[in-house]
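The record is kept unedited without comment:

——
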Amino acid sequence: MSVQIESLANEEFTIWQLAHFPQGRVAQVKTELKSIARRMQHKRQEYIQNESFIFDFINELDLPIVVLDHHFQVYHYNTAAESFYKGKHITGFNTRQLELEKVNGRWQTISDNQRFKVVEHALFRGQRQYKLMVYVSIEQQLRKNEQQVWQKLVRVLNHEVRNSLTPIYSMTQSLKDLPIGTNSDLKQTMLGVIEKRAEHLLGFVSSYSKLSQLPEPKKHVISAIELKQRLQALFPFVTIKQISGEGLNVYCDIEQLEQALLNLVKNAEEANEITGATEIILVIKLFELQSCFEVIDCGEGVSNTDNLFTPFYSTKEQGSGIGLVLSREIIRAQGGELTLVSNDGFDGAIARIELPNRQNIAELSSS
């Protein structure tokens, strides 16, 4: 009996040396052991097929992928990983031989002057845990993101410049073709339109310059009371609510923060004009490690999120497409983030500024 149980424990299903018992408990045990063995054998076959499928799938991917065993040595790798390691046979290599380095708890490596982050996934095989290591080029991802940003920017530039130059070109041609003695009022009207479009282009270029030349933030501590007083004076028609942190301080460049809030409140006013609403709420939430400001309007909410922060893109007829982008850059320069989302369950949108109270963090760490 012990031989059969040991064979099952070792996943061997062909060793059966029990004497022949046509009936009785021993025969019943033998039958049950054989049934267990068949089920285990089927499960093992399923496992082998699943493992084979996973490895075949890995082999088809273009990303370098390496499977490490429980000793952190290479158990399997795909064609892309072979190319990554210049055709070397890396089976059995450890992480040092793979030139993998763990920085802040994350694997990374360098190849051909390119940085790769190596994402680690757990893969279980029997009772042992294996590691699926996926190599992702940071530079390629950055280049891809940069390319997408430039493509969006070029589309917007093309749209904006073409919209201004087309009427200018058309009217200059018309002015050239006007017969001598034509009514001077018509000429003045055409020249006025040309002047307006040229003025718009100058403003467009000025906005671009403003975006690319933001001053460095000069952060200092300001109390919640002083902050609220300043904002109430700046936005007399905005409802200001402080939900938490009345006794706390904010660590920021207050002038730049006010500039970002001015842009967001202006956006909120324009959103309200569409629905005829008037109320704008500015919510202040202060915590030890973070400051949060929410500008809430009663407009139609956020419909197109793809181009929200694309420079010079605007869905408004007279919009410059610079306000949101400029505000986000102001906030990011202070280590924070600006997001814009629809107000779930209500009308309108929420523009949310989150800033770290880094001085508070320093105080907590030193205490």
Observations:
- Residues 138-177 form the longest helix (40 residues).
- Residues 360-367 have pLDDT under 50 and may be disordered.
- The chain is about 45% helix and 20% strand.
